[in-house]
């Protein structure tokens, strides 16, 4: 008796545990993949943005540093200017103080001199006074043959009578050649003292030997003659030479 043939059966292997897990949790796995991918993309985006921000900040910081350095330089310049200004102010205040003190002293000395002069005048009046006279003649040479005269007149009368009249300045050269100096104002009128000043231009080729002053007033004329003397020329001309009158010739 032959053996009974058994039916052919195919064995199927059951799915693995991993596959069964994925298959049973497929929605969760897909969700995790989506979340992970999104996180990577978001992280890259944020990192890239932060990198760009860092580069921009470095550029802004460099520009800000340049601005700060420029402002420091400007502040240093302003501080230097301020210090210089303060020093100049201090020097000016010191000079002003010295000038004020010097002016005060000179004012006091002038007042004392005027008081003494008034006392001497009164003493001279009590002693008979002083007739009209030329107290002083001063001639200063200027550039371009110009000259400046200063004529001081004096009179003191017990009755304080005023002296009035005209003055004339003559230059006497060789062979008694006479030149009359043009005076800007030759009239005088005073009680005790008066000064007449002016300028003229000396003619070329004329060299005086004497200077003569004539005063013509109410009384007898007063004539004073002095030797011609030249002082040091004045370098700074306070007036225009073209405005100085020319000397006129006049025979004695």
Explain what this protein looks like in three dimensions:
Helices cover about 45% and strands about 25% of the residues. With about 250 residues, the chain is α+β, with helices and mostly antiparallel strands. The protein has 2 domains: about 20-125; about 130-250, Immunoglobulin-like (Sandwich).
Summarize the structure.
The protein is α+β, with helices and mostly antiparallel strands. The chain is 43% helix and 27% strand.
Key attributes of the depicted protein:
Immunoglobulin-like, 43% helix, rod-shaped, alpha+beta, six-stranded antiparallel beta sheet, three-stranded antiparallel beta sheet, 9 strands, 2 helices
Query: Oligomerization state of this entry?
Result: single chain
The succession of helices and strands, N to C, reads: HHEEEEEEEEE
What's the story with the biggest beta sheet? 6 strands, antiparallel
The mean pLDDT is: 77
Per CATH, the superfamily of the largest domain is: Immunoglobulins
Number of domains: 2
Total DSSP E strands: 9
The CATH top-level class label of the largest domain? Mainly Beta
Distance between the termini: 201 Å
What is the CATH architecture annotation of the largest domain?
Sandwich
Pfam families: DUF6776 (PF20567)
Coiled coil: 58-116
Transmembrane segments: 21-44
Keywords: Coiled coil, Membrane, Transmembrane, Transmembrane helix
List the helices and strands and how they pair.
Blueprint: H1 17-24, H2 26-126, E1 130-142, E2 146-156, E3 163-172, E4 178-181, E5 187-190, E6 193-201, E7 210-217, E8 222-227, E9 248-249
Antiparallel strand pairs: 1-2, 2-6, 3-4, 3-5, 3-7, 4-9, 7-8
